[in-house]
Amino acid sequence: MTIRRRDILKLASAAALVGGLPRIGRAADAGVYDLERFGNARILHMTDTHAQLLPVYFREPSVNLGIGTMQGRPPHLVGRAFLDRFEIKPDSANAYAFTCLDFEKSAARFGKLGGFAHLKTLIDRLRADVGAANSLLLDGGDLWQGSGLANAMQGADMVEAANLLGIEAMTGHWEFTYGEKALRANLDRFKGEFLAQNVFLTEEAAFNDAPAFDAASRRVFKPATIKEIGGYRVAVIGQAFPYVPIAHPKRFTPDWTFGIRDDELQKLVNSLRGNDKVDAVVLLSHNGMDVDLKLASRVTGIDVILGGHTHDAVPQPIPVTNAGGITLVTNAGSNGKFLGVLDLDLAKGKVSDVRYRLLPVFSELLKPDAAMQALIEKLRAPYAAAYAEKTATADRLLYRRGNFNGTVDQLICDALRGEFDAEIALSPGFRWGTSVLPGQPVTMEDVLAETSVTYPETYVQSMTGGQIKDILEDVCDNLFNADPYYQQGGDMVRVGGLSYACAPAEAVGRRISGLKLDNGRSIEAGKSYKVAGWASVNEQKGAPVWDVFAKHLRAGKALARHNGDSVTLKGVVDNPGIAGQG
Q: What is the pLDDT of residues 6-18, one digit of tens each?
């Protein structure tokens, strides 16, 4: 059974702890991590670290629009609206960690977040506080991708780090883009379990006896595991990213089909509750938060969804009522900035009570673990000199995260247009990629942190104005479709050389208008334009984007060619998903 309706008021009060954390500064101690003991089982959750082994700067979005029923609801709150909703003091360490407000000033004050050596210290401390037999460490995916090092080693570096960190179960997304051979080689070395209830063999692959966890059901991976925690049985179900063959080249996973598969999920939950007599069910999800919120309303018997993919750092779990009771939905941010702490008070066959905290990992408050630090240095040693190369100096804050153009992708678009003499550039709306403060060097490691994928090839091709509009409409529908099951969790494709208007709340095909080139001329539907881009799902032969980007930076050209006004938003007045509104 899920958490009962009468428990929700107690839960909502208990979960609202992050706003009460004390303000910290460089001289403060780590008392913010002294958590009151509660319950009999502690589950620690991290997700979307994107292979960032070292502490990072990462600016949270200033635009994260919720449309329709999602307007004004988490995770679609930014800036002051976010602080008000979660009772976080402005100008505090938590305001810095969770929002974009005063980011540059606060970054100098509070420093970087994350880092696996610092995470290791915090995780060990939190597990020791309750006893090893009473705790569990889970990773929600996007662990192996997002750095030059991970790309070069095909995620093997992150497997070593995960083993030392003590991750006991994980699910996946970008992990699949290394292809089946590399994925399975990494999983052979991984000491934990890889869980994915929603990945199945195609009919042809099953006919050809392709490897699978269960040939009868055609499930490729183990769907769930049962852990004994605090003397109780806790089921953890894995939910991999549902749209891998759509969002990425199909050639990486030709034998596998994905999908949300909530009917299969319901059958699995019923079996775990009935046949296996578990006391709690946790879904370790890489769906994205909006998808998880809908799923929680449809599938019964799940106590808590530990979510990822959309990089939303949400301090309190969101309760969702369904036919069986209430399911709590969480999302734990990205880049190693946060660690979710789920404390459960378990009884026979049920969760009696819950405490949840999403802790920012302030690296300056945590002594790095010596063994993890040594491992990181060993892994980085062959690449360190190349990664340290200074390609440029940031003349403004460089960031990516947000529904529309960020300054990093503006630069990448500049590089593509300059290198290929293109009128227009397109850059994918990836949500990973760290931030660089003004006046700081842009190193080759920073370049790779924005571009490291297994399909980095650039391309140049002719597109008509009508085709360009169709691309923008298609991506916009993926981002703002009123049905979360039709969303894939990325941000809007970034553009260079053109501007347009976007009405997110309109119907599909009616959101994009007013396309113009930088020279002010309207883009004509039937006219052809030279377009450059990268990370196409169709195989390309061009130079890797990191070479093109680094070449542009080394040339010493102005880093801020655009004013950030390439998109004019319509119909979003008073939407609290835009900083400064709501």
A: 443 344 344 443 3
Across 187-207, average pLDDT: 98
Question: Roughly what angle, to the nearest 10 degrees, separates helices 407-420 and 444-451?
Answer: 90
pTM of the model: 0.95
C-alpha to C-alpha distance for 505 and 260, rounded to whole angstroms: 24
- Map 343-360 to HEC letters: EEEEECCEEEEEEEEEEE
Length of the chain: 582
Q: What average pLDDT does range 519-530 have in this prediction?
A: 97
Q: What is the pLDDT of residue 481?
A: 94
Q: In 3D, which of 363, 392, 406, 402 has the Cα closest to residue 110?
A: 363
User: Which tokens sit at 327?
Assistant: 């399911």
Separation CA 387–CA 446 (nearest Å): 8
State how far the alpha carbon of 110 is from the alpha carbons of 64, 91, 102, 437, 529, in Å. 24, 11, 12, 13, 46
Share of the chain above pLDDT 90, in %: 91
Locate the DSSP E strands across 313-440.
318-322, 325-331, 338-347, 350-360, 390-393, 424-427
Two structure tokens written together for 162: 């995960």
- What's the burial of 501, exposed, middle or buried (CB within 10 Å: 0-12/13-18/19+)? middle
Q: Are 338 and 362 in contact (CB under 8 A)?
A: no
How is residue 331 written in tokens? 């999302």
212 to each of 1, 366, 521, how far by Cα in Å?
Answer: 31, 42, 55
- Amino acid sitting at position 142: D
| Helix, strand, coil percentages for the chain (3-state, nearest 5) | 35, 25, 45
Q: Which residue has the tokens 């630069």?
A: 411
Q: How far apart are CA 195 and CA 222, in angstroms?
A: 5
Asked if the bond preceding 75 is cis, omega within 30° of 0, the reply is yes
Answer yes or no: are the C-beta atoms of 346 and 280 closer than 8 Å. yes
Which of 492, 483, 382 has the alpha carbon at shortest distance from 426? 492
